[in-house]
Design a protein that fits this description.
Strand content: 15-25%
CATH class of one domain: Alpha Beta
Number of helices: 12
Distance between the termini: 55 Å
Bound molecules: N-(aminocarbonyl)-beta-alanine, zinc ion
Radius of gyration: 22 Å
Order of helices and strands: EEEEEEHEHEEHEHEHHHEHEHHEHHEEEE
Number of strands: 18
CATH superfamily of one domain: Metal-dependent hydrolases
Low-confidence stretches: none
Protein backbone atom coordinates (compact mmCIF):
# COMPACT_ATOMS: atom_id res chain seq x y z
CA UNK A 1 0.00 0.00 0.00
CA UNK A 2 1.58 3.30 -1.13
CA UNK A 3 0.99 6.77 0.37
CA UNK A 4 -0.56 8.19 -2.78
CA UNK A 5 -1.32 6.78 -6.22
CA UNK A 6 -2.06 8.97 -9.26
CA UNK A 7 -4.21 6.70 -11.37
CA UNK A 8 -4.50 6.47 -15.11
CA UNK A 9 -2.73 9.62 -16.30
CA UNK A 10 -0.42 9.88 -19.28
CA UNK A 11 3.06 9.87 -17.78
CA UNK A 12 5.60 11.77 -19.87
CA UNK A 13 9.38 11.58 -19.59
CA UNK A 14 11.99 12.73 -22.12
CA UNK A 15 12.24 9.30 -23.73
CA UNK A 16 8.90 7.67 -23.07
CA UNK A 17 5.20 8.32 -22.70
CA UNK A 18 2.30 6.08 -21.69
CA UNK A 19 -0.70 5.60 -19.46
CA UNK A 20 0.32 4.37 -16.01
CA UNK A 21 -0.40 4.69 -12.31
CA UNK A 22 2.29 6.53 -10.36
CA UNK A 23 2.80 5.40 -6.76
CA UNK A 24 4.42 7.65 -4.16
CA UNK A 25 5.85 6.54 -0.83
CA UNK A 26 8.08 8.43 1.60
CA UNK A 27 8.31 11.42 -0.72
CA UNK A 28 9.75 9.32 -3.55
CA UNK A 29 8.28 7.74 -6.65
CA UNK A 30 7.93 4.13 -5.58
CA UNK A 31 6.46 2.43 -8.64
CA UNK A 32 4.92 2.92 -12.06
CA UNK A 33 2.43 0.32 -13.20
CA UNK A 34 -1.19 -0.72 -13.44
CA UNK A 35 -3.75 -1.19 -10.68
CA UNK A 36 -1.44 0.18 -7.96
CA UNK A 37 -3.15 0.75 -4.62
CA UNK A 38 -2.57 3.62 -2.17
CA UNK A 39 -3.95 5.01 1.07
CA UNK A 40 -4.97 7.96 -1.10
CA UNK A 41 -5.83 7.50 -4.75
CA UNK A 42 -6.52 10.18 -7.31
CA UNK A 43 -8.02 9.65 -10.73
CA UNK A 44 -5.93 11.64 -13.19
CA UNK A 45 -7.16 9.96 -16.37
CA UNK A 46 -7.20 12.39 -19.28
CA UNK A 47 -4.48 14.42 -17.58
CA UNK A 48 -0.75 14.67 -18.34
CA UNK A 49 1.65 13.69 -15.58
CA UNK A 50 4.92 15.56 -15.98
CA UNK A 51 8.04 15.78 -13.82
CA UNK A 52 7.67 18.96 -11.74
CA UNK A 53 9.13 21.96 -13.52
CA UNK A 54 12.63 23.11 -12.58
CA UNK A 55 13.05 26.86 -12.94
CA UNK A 56 16.74 27.76 -13.04
CA UNK A 57 16.78 31.46 -13.89
CA UNK A 58 14.86 33.73 -11.56
CA UNK A 59 15.64 36.72 -9.37
CA UNK A 60 14.01 36.38 -5.97
CA UNK A 61 14.58 38.62 -2.92
CA UNK A 62 17.52 40.03 -4.83
CA UNK A 63 18.87 43.55 -5.13
CA UNK A 64 19.29 44.45 -8.81
CA UNK A 65 22.22 46.15 -10.53
CA UNK A 66 20.40 49.46 -9.94
CA UNK A 67 19.80 48.70 -6.25
CA UNK A 68 16.03 47.99 -6.54
CA UNK A 69 14.77 44.96 -4.58
CA UNK A 70 12.69 42.43 -6.49
CA UNK A 71 8.99 42.42 -5.62
CA UNK A 72 8.99 38.68 -4.96
CA UNK A 73 10.56 37.09 -1.93
CA UNK A 74 11.01 33.35 -1.44
CA UNK A 75 7.43 32.96 -0.25
CA UNK A 76 5.64 34.71 -3.10
CA UNK A 77 8.23 33.66 -5.67
CA UNK A 78 7.99 29.99 -4.77
CA UNK A 79 4.18 30.07 -4.54
CA UNK A 80 3.99 31.64 -7.99
CA UNK A 81 6.48 29.08 -9.32
CA UNK A 82 4.40 26.24 -7.84
CA UNK A 83 1.15 27.51 -9.39
CA UNK A 84 3.06 27.50 -12.70
CA UNK A 85 3.87 23.79 -12.40
CA UNK A 86 7.32 24.00 -10.79
CA UNK A 87 8.58 21.96 -7.86
CA UNK A 88 12.16 23.27 -7.71
CA UNK A 89 13.59 26.70 -8.37
CA UNK A 90 17.13 28.01 -8.40
CA UNK A 91 17.26 31.79 -7.89
CA UNK A 92 20.46 33.80 -7.59
CA UNK A 93 22.37 34.68 -4.45
CA UNK A 94 24.01 37.93 -5.52
CA UNK A 95 27.39 39.07 -4.32
CA UNK A 96 27.74 42.83 -4.67
CA UNK A 97 31.23 44.32 -4.72
CA UNK A 98 32.86 44.33 -1.30
CA UNK A 99 30.69 41.48 0.02
CA UNK A 100 32.24 38.19 1.08
CA UNK A 101 30.64 35.05 -0.37
CA UNK A 102 29.88 33.41 3.04
CA UNK A 103 28.02 36.55 4.10
CA UNK A 104 26.01 36.47 0.85
CA UNK A 105 25.02 32.85 1.38
CA UNK A 106 24.05 33.49 4.99
CA UNK A 107 21.78 36.31 3.80
CA UNK A 108 20.08 34.16 1.17
CA UNK A 109 19.75 31.16 3.50
CA UNK A 110 17.82 33.43 5.86
CA UNK A 111 15.65 34.67 2.99
CA UNK A 112 14.94 31.24 1.54
CA UNK A 113 14.77 28.57 4.25
CA UNK A 114 11.75 29.82 6.23
CA UNK A 115 9.82 30.91 3.15
CA UNK A 116 10.16 28.55 0.19
CA UNK A 117 7.14 26.33 -0.43
CA UNK A 118 9.06 24.27 -3.02
CA UNK A 119 12.62 22.95 -3.14
CA UNK A 120 15.31 25.47 -3.93
CA UNK A 121 18.98 25.98 -4.56
CA UNK A 122 21.01 29.03 -5.62
CA UNK A 123 23.42 30.09 -8.28
CA UNK A 124 25.89 32.62 -6.89
CA UNK A 125 26.31 35.88 -8.78
CA UNK A 126 30.00 36.75 -8.60
CA UNK A 127 30.99 40.40 -9.03
CA UNK A 128 34.09 40.53 -6.84
CA UNK A 129 36.39 37.58 -7.59
CA UNK A 130 38.98 38.31 -4.92
CA UNK A 131 41.76 35.86 -4.14
CA UNK A 132 39.79 34.69 -1.08
CA UNK A 133 36.66 34.18 -3.19
CA UNK A 134 38.53 32.20 -5.85
CA UNK A 135 40.70 30.04 -3.64
CA UNK A 136 38.48 29.52 -0.60
CA UNK A 137 34.90 30.79 -0.71
CA UNK A 138 33.71 29.58 -4.11
CA UNK A 139 35.21 26.09 -3.66
CA UNK A 140 33.48 25.99 -0.24
CA UNK A 141 30.18 26.94 -1.90
CA UNK A 142 30.66 24.16 -4.47
CA UNK A 143 31.34 21.69 -1.67
CA UNK A 144 28.01 22.74 -0.18
CA UNK A 145 26.28 21.88 -3.44
CA UNK A 146 26.05 25.34 -4.99
CA UNK A 147 27.77 24.24 -8.17
CA UNK A 148 26.86 27.03 -10.58
CA UNK A 149 27.24 30.78 -10.63
CA UNK A 150 26.68 33.72 -12.92
CA UNK A 151 28.97 36.50 -14.06
CA UNK A 152 28.11 39.60 -16.05
CA UNK A 153 29.96 41.05 -19.02
CA UNK A 154 27.86 44.21 -18.69
CA UNK A 155 26.22 46.46 -16.04
CA UNK A 156 28.81 48.80 -14.47
CA UNK A 157 28.13 47.49 -10.96
CA UNK A 158 28.33 43.82 -11.90
CA UNK A 159 30.78 43.51 -14.81
CA UNK A 160 33.92 41.37 -14.55
CA UNK A 161 36.95 41.98 -16.75
CA UNK A 162 38.16 39.34 -19.21
CA UNK A 163 41.08 38.56 -16.87
CA UNK A 164 38.70 38.07 -13.95
CA UNK A 165 36.48 35.97 -16.18
CA UNK A 166 39.42 33.70 -17.02
CA UNK A 167 40.31 33.35 -13.33
CA UNK A 168 36.70 32.39 -12.59
CA UNK A 169 36.46 29.91 -15.47
CA UNK A 170 39.66 28.14 -14.41
CA UNK A 171 38.58 27.97 -10.77
CA UNK A 172 35.16 26.57 -11.80
CA UNK A 173 36.74 24.01 -14.07
CA UNK A 174 39.03 22.80 -11.28
CA UNK A 175 36.12 22.32 -8.86
CA UNK A 176 33.37 21.07 -11.17
CA UNK A 177 31.44 24.34 -11.22
CA UNK A 178 29.39 25.64 -14.13
CA UNK A 179 29.82 29.30 -15.05
CA UNK A 180 26.76 31.08 -16.40
CA UNK A 181 27.24 34.35 -18.22
CA UNK A 182 25.17 37.39 -19.15
CA UNK A 183 26.78 38.10 -22.49
CA UNK A 184 26.45 41.64 -23.82
CA UNK A 185 29.29 43.98 -24.79
CA UNK A 186 29.30 46.72 -22.15
CA UNK A 187 31.08 49.32 -24.27
CA UNK A 188 28.66 48.98 -27.18
CA UNK A 189 25.73 49.43 -24.80
CA UNK A 190 27.34 52.45 -23.08
CA UNK A 191 28.22 54.00 -26.44
CA UNK A 192 24.72 53.55 -27.87
CA UNK A 193 23.11 54.72 -24.63
CA UNK A 194 25.21 57.89 -24.55
CA UNK A 195 24.37 58.77 -28.15
CA UNK A 196 20.65 58.08 -27.68
CA UNK A 197 20.39 60.01 -24.41
CA UNK A 198 22.45 63.00 -25.69
CA UNK A 199 19.95 63.33 -28.52
CA UNK A 200 16.94 63.06 -26.22
CA UNK A 201 15.88 59.54 -27.19
CA UNK A 202 15.09 58.32 -23.70
CA UNK A 203 11.63 56.71 -24.06
CA UNK A 204 11.35 52.98 -23.26
CA UNK A 205 11.29 52.06 -26.95
CA UNK A 206 14.92 53.21 -27.29
CA UNK A 207 16.05 50.54 -24.83
CA UNK A 208 16.13 47.99 -27.68
CA UNK A 209 18.47 50.10 -29.82
CA UNK A 210 20.71 50.73 -26.80
CA UNK A 211 21.37 46.98 -26.50
CA UNK A 212 22.04 46.00 -30.11
CA UNK A 213 22.04 42.38 -31.22
CA UNK A 214 25.71 42.84 -32.14
CA UNK A 215 26.50 43.44 -28.45
CA UNK A 216 25.20 39.98 -27.59
CA UNK A 217 26.96 38.34 -30.51
CA UNK A 218 30.33 39.92 -29.66
CA UNK A 219 30.12 38.88 -26.03
CA UNK A 220 28.99 35.33 -26.88
CA UNK A 221 31.90 34.88 -29.27
CA UNK A 222 34.33 36.31 -26.72
CA UNK A 223 32.92 34.10 -23.98
CA UNK A 224 33.34 31.03 -26.17
CA UNK A 225 36.92 32.04 -27.01
CA UNK A 226 37.81 32.51 -23.34
CA UNK A 227 36.08 29.36 -22.08
CA UNK A 228 37.44 27.10 -24.78
CA UNK A 229 40.94 28.59 -24.28
CA UNK A 230 40.95 27.18 -20.73
CA UNK A 231 38.69 24.17 -21.43
CA UNK A 232 35.95 25.34 -19.08
CA UNK A 233 32.20 24.75 -19.45
CA UNK A 234 30.10 27.87 -20.01
CA UNK A 235 26.35 28.46 -20.12
CA UNK A 236 25.04 31.51 -21.95
CA UNK A 237 21.82 32.63 -20.29
CA UNK A 238 18.94 34.51 -21.95
CA UNK A 239 20.14 34.17 -25.55
CA UNK A 240 18.09 36.54 -27.70
CA UNK A 241 19.70 36.38 -31.15
CA UNK A 242 20.07 33.85 -33.94
CA UNK A 243 23.76 34.71 -34.36
CA UNK A 244 24.41 34.19 -30.64
CA UNK A 245 22.71 30.79 -30.75
CA UNK A 246 24.59 29.84 -33.91
CA UNK A 247 27.91 30.66 -32.24
CA UNK A 248 26.91 28.30 -29.42
CA UNK A 249 25.96 25.56 -31.90
CA UNK A 250 29.28 25.92 -33.72
CA UNK A 251 31.24 25.73 -30.46
CA UNK A 252 29.35 22.60 -29.42
CA UNK A 253 30.03 21.01 -32.80
CA UNK A 254 33.72 21.61 -32.09
CA UNK A 255 33.35 19.66 -28.85
CA UNK A 256 33.34 22.55 -26.36
CA UNK A 257 31.10 22.41 -23.30
CA UNK A 258 29.15 25.50 -24.36
CA UNK A 259 25.44 25.62 -23.47
CA UNK A 260 22.60 28.05 -24.11
CA UNK A 261 19.33 29.18 -22.56
CA UNK A 262 16.48 31.32 -23.83
CA UNK A 263 13.39 32.72 -22.13
CA UNK A 264 9.66 33.20 -22.85
CA UNK A 265 9.99 36.93 -23.46
CA UNK A 266 12.20 36.31 -26.51
CA UNK A 267 9.70 33.79 -27.92
CA UNK A 268 6.41 35.55 -27.16
CA UNK A 269 7.11 39.31 -27.12
CA UNK A 270 8.91 41.72 -29.47
CA UNK A 271 10.51 45.17 -29.29
CA UNK A 272 7.15 46.57 -30.49
CA UNK A 273 5.94 45.96 -26.93
CA UNK A 274 8.39 48.64 -25.74
CA UNK A 275 6.53 51.13 -27.91
CA UNK A 276 3.37 51.17 -25.81
CA UNK A 277 1.90 54.54 -24.80
CA UNK A 278 3.41 56.63 -22.00
CA UNK A 279 5.57 54.73 -19.56
CA UNK A 280 3.83 51.41 -20.33
CA UNK A 281 6.80 50.34 -22.42
CA UNK A 282 8.94 50.35 -19.25
CA UNK A 283 7.17 47.13 -18.24
CA UNK A 284 8.92 45.45 -21.18
CA UNK A 285 12.46 46.67 -20.48
CA UNK A 286 14.74 43.73 -19.95
CA UNK A 287 18.27 42.89 -21.01
CA UNK A 288 19.05 41.59 -23.52
CA UNK A 289 16.06 43.43 -24.99
CA UNK A 290 13.09 42.04 -26.86
CA UNK A 291 13.85 41.53 -30.55
CA UNK A 292 11.57 40.81 -33.53
CA UNK A 293 9.30 38.19 -35.16
CA UNK A 294 12.09 36.69 -37.27
CA UNK A 295 14.22 36.17 -34.16
CA UNK A 296 11.34 34.40 -32.44
CA UNK A 297 11.24 31.90 -35.29
CA UNK A 298 15.02 31.46 -35.10
CA UNK A 299 14.91 30.80 -31.36
CA UNK A 300 12.15 28.19 -31.72
CA UNK A 301 14.39 26.48 -34.26
CA UNK A 302 17.32 26.51 -31.84
CA UNK A 303 15.14 25.10 -29.06
CA UNK A 304 14.02 22.35 -31.37
CA UNK A 305 17.52 21.60 -32.63
CA UNK A 306 18.90 21.46 -29.09
CA UNK A 307 21.26 24.44 -29.46
CA UNK A 308 19.37 26.02 -26.60
CA UNK A 309 18.82 23.32 -23.99
CA UNK A 310 17.37 25.51 -21.26
CA UNK A 311 14.17 27.51 -21.25
CA UNK A 312 13.86 29.66 -18.12
CA UNK A 313 11.74 32.60 -17.09
CA UNK A 314 14.44 35.12 -16.06
CA UNK A 315 11.72 36.26 -13.65
CA UNK A 316 12.99 39.68 -12.53
CA UNK A 317 9.93 41.27 -10.92
CA UNK A 318 9.91 45.06 -10.47
CA UNK A 319 6.47 46.53 -9.88
CA UNK A 320 5.10 49.36 -12.01
CA UNK A 321 5.46 51.82 -9.15
CA UNK A 322 7.99 54.13 -7.50
CA UNK A 323 9.67 51.18 -5.75
CA UNK A 324 10.21 49.36 -9.03
CA UNK A 325 10.07 50.36 -12.69
CA UNK A 326 9.16 53.98 -11.90
CA UNK A 327 11.87 54.67 -9.30
CA UNK A 328 13.30 57.41 -11.57
CA UNK A 329 9.88 59.09 -11.96
CA UNK A 330 6.57 58.51 -13.74
CA UNK A 331 8.24 58.70 -17.17
CA UNK A 332 11.63 57.14 -16.48
CA UNK A 333 14.37 57.30 -19.11
CA UNK A 334 15.11 53.79 -20.39
CA UNK A 335 18.64 53.79 -18.98
CA UNK A 336 17.36 54.50 -15.46
CA UNK A 337 14.65 51.84 -15.45
CA UNK A 338 15.13 48.54 -13.62
CA UNK A 339 15.75 45.75 -16.14
CA UNK A 340 13.59 42.68 -16.09
CA UNK A 341 10.05 41.38 -16.17
CA UNK A 342 8.01 38.76 -14.32
CA UNK A 343 7.18 35.33 -15.77
CA UNK A 344 7.86 32.51 -13.33
CA UNK A 345 4.22 31.32 -13.25
CA UNK A 346 3.63 31.58 -17.00
CA UNK A 347 6.89 30.02 -18.26
CA UNK A 348 5.42 26.53 -18.61
CA UNK A 349 1.81 27.39 -19.55
CA UNK A 350 3.21 29.56 -22.38
CA UNK A 351 5.49 26.75 -23.58
CA UNK A 352 2.68 24.22 -23.44
CA UNK A 353 0.08 26.39 -25.14
CA UNK A 354 2.34 27.97 -27.75
CA UNK A 355 4.79 25.09 -28.13
CA UNK A 356 3.06 21.75 -27.60
CA UNK A 357 -0.47 22.69 -28.68
CA UNK A 358 0.73 24.38 -31.86
CA UNK A 359 2.87 21.36 -32.77
CA UNK A 360 6.16 23.24 -32.49
CA UNK A 361 7.51 20.83 -29.88
CA UNK A 362 6.60 17.35 -28.66
CA UNK A 363 5.46 16.46 -25.14
CA UNK A 364 8.83 14.79 -24.56
CA UNK A 365 10.68 17.98 -25.51
CA UNK A 366 8.37 19.90 -23.22
CA UNK A 367 9.62 17.70 -20.39
CA UNK A 368 13.22 18.25 -21.49
CA UNK A 369 12.77 22.02 -21.54
CA UNK A 370 10.66 22.26 -18.41
CA UNK A 371 12.67 20.01 -16.10
CA UNK A 372 14.96 17.26 -17.38
CA UNK A 373 17.62 19.38 -19.07
CA UNK A 374 17.86 21.69 -16.07
CA UNK A 375 18.21 18.69 -13.77
CA UNK A 376 21.06 17.32 -15.88
CA UNK A 377 22.90 20.59 -16.47
CA UNK A 378 22.62 21.75 -12.86
CA UNK A 379 23.56 18.51 -11.12
CA UNK A 380 20.17 17.21 -9.92
CA UNK A 381 19.51 14.43 -12.44
CA UNK A 382 20.00 11.70 -9.84
CA UNK A 383 16.88 12.93 -7.98
CA UNK A 384 14.84 15.29 -10.11
CA UNK A 385 13.59 15.82 -13.65
CA UNK A 386 12.05 12.40 -14.31
CA UNK A 387 9.11 10.28 -13.19
CA UNK A 388 10.91 7.06 -12.33
CA UNK A 389 11.21 4.83 -9.25
CA UNK A 390 13.68 6.25 -6.73
CA UNK A 391 13.28 9.84 -7.90
CA UNK A 392 11.82 12.59 -5.73
CA UNK A 393 8.04 12.60 -6.13
CA UNK A 394 8.10 15.98 -7.90
CA UNK A 395 5.11 15.90 -10.21
CA UNK A 396 2.90 18.35 -12.07
CA UNK A 397 -0.48 17.06 -13.25
CA UNK A 398 -1.67 19.10 -16.21
CA UNK A 399 -5.12 19.50 -17.71
CA UNK A 400 -4.26 19.83 -21.40
CA UNK A 401 -7.66 21.35 -22.21
CA UNK A 402 -7.95 23.95 -19.48
CA UNK A 403 -8.23 27.45 -20.97
CA UNK A 404 -7.03 30.40 -18.94
CA UNK A 405 -7.12 34.09 -19.79
CA UNK A 406 -4.02 35.55 -18.20
CA UNK A 407 -4.46 38.49 -15.84
CA UNK A 408 -2.05 39.94 -13.29
CA UNK A 409 -4.72 39.47 -10.61
CA UNK A 410 -4.99 35.77 -11.41
CA UNK A 411 -1.29 35.14 -10.82
CA UNK A 412 0.32 34.51 -7.45
CA UNK A 413 3.47 36.64 -7.57
CA UNK A 414 3.77 40.01 -5.83
CA UNK A 415 3.52 41.92 -9.08
CA UNK A 416 1.02 44.50 -10.26
CA UNK A 417 1.35 43.62 -13.94
CA UNK A 418 2.10 40.77 -16.29
CA UNK A 419 3.57 41.33 -19.75
CA UNK A 420 1.18 38.61 -20.96
CA UNK A 421 -2.08 40.25 -19.82
CA UNK A 422 -5.09 39.06 -21.83
CA UNK A 423 -3.41 36.08 -23.52
CA UNK A 424 -5.57 33.00 -23.73
CA UNK A 425 -3.57 29.87 -22.95
CA UNK A 426 -4.71 26.27 -23.24
CA UNK A 427 -3.22 23.68 -20.88
CA UNK A 428 -2.57 24.37 -17.22
CA UNK A 429 -1.03 22.60 -14.19
CA UNK A 430 -3.82 21.60 -11.80
CA UNK A 431 -2.01 19.59 -9.13
CA UNK A 432 1.63 20.12 -8.13
CA UNK A 433 3.43 17.71 -5.83
CA UNK A 434 6.89 18.26 -4.32
CA UNK A 435 8.57 15.25 -2.65
CA UNK A 436 5.16 13.70 -2.20
CA UNK A 437 3.54 16.78 -0.63
CA UNK A 438 0.64 18.35 -2.51
CA UNK A 439 1.64 22.01 -2.87
CA UNK A 440 -1.06 23.24 -5.24
CA UNK A 441 -4.39 21.55 -5.87
CA UNK A 442 -7.16 22.77 -8.13
CA UNK A 443 -6.28 26.44 -7.77
CA UNK A 444 -5.60 26.33 -4.02
CA UNK A 445 -2.30 26.53 -2.17
CA UNK A 446 -1.75 23.53 0.09
CA UNK A 447 1.96 23.95 0.83
CA UNK A 448 3.42 25.97 3.67
CA UNK A 449 6.35 28.41 3.68
CA UNK A 450 9.41 26.49 4.84
CA UNK A 451 8.27 23.16 3.32
CA UNK A 452 10.81 23.50 0.50
CA UNK A 453 14.29 22.17 1.22
CA UNK A 454 17.70 23.22 -0.06
CA UNK A 455 18.91 20.99 -2.91
CA UNK A 456 22.66 20.31 -2.74
CA UNK A 457 23.66 19.85 -6.36
CA UNK A 458 26.35 17.70 -7.97
CA UNK A 459 29.28 19.09 -9.98
CA UNK A 460 28.78 19.82 -13.68
CA UNK A 461 29.00 16.60 -15.70
CA UNK A 462 31.55 17.29 -18.45
CA UNK A 463 31.42 13.79 -19.95
CA UNK A 464 30.92 13.80 -23.68
CA UNK A 465 32.74 17.04 -24.38
CA UNK A 466 36.17 17.00 -26.01
CA UNK A 467 39.28 18.16 -24.17
CA UNK A 468 40.16 21.37 -25.98
CA UNK A 469 42.63 23.28 -23.82
CA UNK A 470 44.79 25.77 -25.76
CA UNK A 471 48.27 24.51 -26.68
CA UNK A 472 49.89 27.42 -24.84
CA UNK A 473 48.44 26.11 -21.58
CA UNK A 474 49.71 22.60 -22.02
CA UNK A 475 52.93 21.90 -20.04
CA UNK A 476 54.14 19.44 -22.71
CA UNK A 477 53.99 22.17 -25.33
CA UNK A 478 55.12 24.90 -22.95
CA UNK A 479 58.54 23.86 -21.58
CA UNK A 480 56.86 22.23 -18.57
CA UNK A 481 55.18 25.40 -17.33
CA UNK A 482 52.09 24.58 -15.20
CA UNK A 483 49.69 27.47 -15.72
CA UNK A 484 46.35 25.96 -14.71
O1 LIG B 1 16.68 42.32 -17.62
C1 LIG B 1 16.98 41.34 -16.96
N1 LIG B 1 17.20 40.20 -17.55
N2 LIG B 1 17.07 41.47 -15.63
C2 LIG B 1 17.47 40.49 -14.75
C3 LIG B 1 18.94 40.44 -14.58
C4 LIG B 1 19.60 39.63 -15.65
O2 LIG B 1 20.49 40.16 -16.29
O3 LIG B 1 19.28 38.47 -15.86
ZN1 LIG C 1 21.41 38.47 -17.16
ZN1 LIG D 1 18.34 37.10 -15.06
Amino acid sequence: MFDLVLKGGTVVNTGSMGVADVAIAGGKIAALGQALRGREERDVSGKLVFPGGIETHCHIAQESATGAMTADDYRTGSISAAFGGNTTFVPFAAQHRGQAIPEVLETYDARAAPNAVIDYSYHLIVTDPTEAALSRDLPAAFARGITSFKVFLTYDKMIVSDQQFLDILVMARAHGGLTMVHAENNAMIAWMTRRLVERGYTAPRHHAASHPAAAEVEAVRRGIALASFVEAPLLFVHISTDAGARAIATARMAGHAILGETCPQYLFLTADDLNRPGAEGAKYICSPPLRDDATQTDLWRHLHAGTLELYSSDHAPYRFDAGGKLSAGPNPPFHRTANGMPGIELRLPLLFSEGVRTGRISLERFVALSAANAARIFGMADRKGAIAPGYDADIAVWDPEKRVTVTAAGLHDAMDYTPFEGRVLTGWPVTVINRGRVVVDDGALKGQPGDGVFVARNPFDARGFLPTRAAELSPERNFGAELL
